[in-house]
Specification:
Elements: E1 8-11, E2 14-18, H1 40-49, H2 53-62, H3 65-70, H4 76-84, H5 88-111, E3 117-120, H6 122-127, H7 129-137, H8 148-151, E4 158-159, E5 168-171, H9 176-187
Parallel strand pairs: 3-5
Antiparallel strand pairs: 1-2, 4-5
Helix pairs in contact: 4-5, 5-7
Length: 188
């Protein structure tokens, strides 16, 4: 989770589903990307705002998501600060983001007949204890419980679930540059 975001369902070490589609636009509401929307909104916006397909593409990819909802920023730190000061649109953006993450995790848990581990990674997943807690607190039906003390960490490999959680919750730092280098080396 970060300015770009996705949820993946992994079963026996193999990805069986991901929230992203043909492009990263599908799936979760992101920093500036709208995520899943009703396709008919495109015709509506085209007629209502007289937008071309290129303008609609720009709107969905660069001016939507939490930026469009909050009207503030695509940076979750800015949105969280504004929400803490009482900005309702900023709070709505955070609520929608959290709701969508929980919705995908719940759907994938159903598709896999349960879940053993939930992993948070990338910018927001690694660094935002509030978002992690809000997501996990909405998944108690799965048996996921967060330990607030363990969750009070940034960017360290750590189990952040409570001892009585039936689902392990992990924080796993990302190293995308290392993965790219390793994959490039393997190709060479």
């Amino acid at each position: 989770m970060g300015n770009g975001a996705s949820v993946a369902a992994v079963k026996y070490g193999k990805s069986i589903d991901t929230s992203m589609g043909f492009t990263p636009l599908a799936g979760l509401t992101m920093g500036a990307r709208c995520g899943d929307i009703d396709p008919s909104i495109l015709a509506y916006l085209s007629h209502k705002m007289n937008l071309s397909i290129d303008e609609l593409n720009d709107l969905m990819n660069k001016k939507s998501g939490v930026l469009g909802i909050s009207g503030i920023s695509s940076d979750f730190r800015d949105i969280e600060n504004a929400a803490a000061e009482g900005n309702q649109r900023a709070q709505l953006a955070l609520d929608i983001y959290t709701y969508n993450v929980k919705k995908y995790i719940g759907a994938y848990a159903a598709a896999m007949d349960g879940v053993d581990v939930i992993v948070f990674t990338a910018g927001l997943g690694e660094n935002d204890k509030v978002t992690r807690a809000n997501v996990i607190n909405g998944l108690s039906f799965l048996g996921a419980q967060i330990d607030n003390e363990l969750n009070d960490v940034r960017g360290k490999l750590r189990v952040i679930s409570s001892d009585d959680s039936r689902v392990k919750v992990l924080l796993v730092p990302t190293n995308e540059e290392l993965m790219i280098a390793e994959e490039t080396l393997a190709l060479l």
